[in-house]
Amino acid sequence: MKGRVFSGARPTGRQHIGNYLGAIQNYVKLQEEHECIYCIVDIHALISMEDVTQMQGNIREMALDWLAAGLDPQRSILFVQSHVPQVMELHTLLSMVTPLGWLLRVPTFKEKARMQPDNVNYGLVGYPVLQTADIVLYKADTVPVGEDQLSHLELAREIVRRFNNLFGPVFPEPQTKLTTYPLVLGLDGMSKMSKSLNNHIELAATPEETERRIMSAFTDPARRYRSDPGHPDVCNIYTLHSFYNPDQRDLIAEQCRSAAIGCVDCKKLLAKGINRALEPFRERRAAITIDYVEEVLADGAGRAGVIAKETLREVKGKMCLL
Ligand code: TRP
Ligand code: SF4
């Protein structure tokens, strides 16, 4: 039997090429062999309250990108976390079998607490319990995530084991499927590509904007003058070429080392490669209406809700709540 995949992502609005190379691409591929459930986790997003007013816009933009990138609502379930409220009930029930010590040890909790010392809220502590509820509500056995989520998945398995020990075998232990991808750095050439650092290229950007942003990117600082030889291996433009111009990669490296190509031309070439690769995506995206997005999300919530109700009934039965 093919496994059931679940993954979630916070609604960050328009997705960038780092999101695509790191996660979305993999989500699309997993649909070929698995039953996949992909969730926009709006409740999780509330741990830091800055941008609640953008919530609905961010959800729709993200869903649009997912659809245009190839997530297929016929084969997979795409939905918004809060549209299946059973997850909050399960979160509460799971919280009863989760020792506080486990949660306080989670590295992401400690980091968040350091980052927002004035808002170390209860939800922040319970974040991985809610994440566990996401996964096990659908009895998913496979969870594709990046390395930063390993500790959450470890905790999810511990919660599952404890629940199953106490109340009987209900949940499969969710396995991490590490998405192996080279870290995609942003236009600053230093930090991971991210919207909050504004070092990203949106999938939905226009070709002009894509080129403009690439032209502003950092390159090998050794190339102060056009005649200075460069080191492609320390330049993120070169790394991006390996995704978007793989055939010309070796040539570019050689021309950079011998100063046969300047950074301006090298970047123009990259912009062309990215724009060529994203053209079909951008066309599909432009053709998707917001009404359609809403329809997909409503249908997804309906299908997810059927599974959720069944699981919750089973859980409540085991916990003598029925
Ligand atoms: N915590 C994940 C992140 O920050 C998002 C998430 C929420 C998730 N629920 C999930 C990921 C369930 C995988 C499975 O990226
Ligand atoms: Fe980077 Fe290209 Fe400039 Fe070399 S030529 S430093 S690879 S942008």
Care to describe what's here?
It is a single chain. This protein is mainly alpha-helical and 322 residues long. The chain has 2 domains: 4-184 and 289-318, HUPs (Rossmann fold, 3-Layer(aba) Sandwich), CATH 3.40.50.620; 207-284, Tyrosyl-Transfer RNA Synthetase (Orthogonal Bundle), CATH 1.10.240.10. The chain has helices at 17-30, 42-45, 55-69, 86-95, 100-104, 107-115, 122-137, 150-167, 207-215, 236-244, 249-257, 263-287, 290-318, and strands at residues 4-9, 35-40, 77-80, 142-145, 175-178. The strands form 2 sheets. It has a 3-stranded parallel β-sheet, with helices on both faces. It has a two-stranded parallel ribbon with strand order 4-5. Helix 1 (17-30) links the parallel strand 1 (4-9) and strand 2 (35-40). Helix 4 (86-95) packs parallel to helix 13 and helix 9 packs antiparallel against helix 12. The longest helix has 29 residues, at 290-318. It starts with a strand and ends with a helix. The model has no long low-confidence stretch (mean pLDDT 95). Bound molecules: tryptophan and iron/sulfur cluster (SF4). Tryptophan is lined by residues 6-10, 41, 44, 131, 134-135, 143, 145, 149, 152. Iron/sulfur cluster is lined by residues 219-220, 223, 230, 232, 235, 237-238, 256, 261, 263, 266-267.
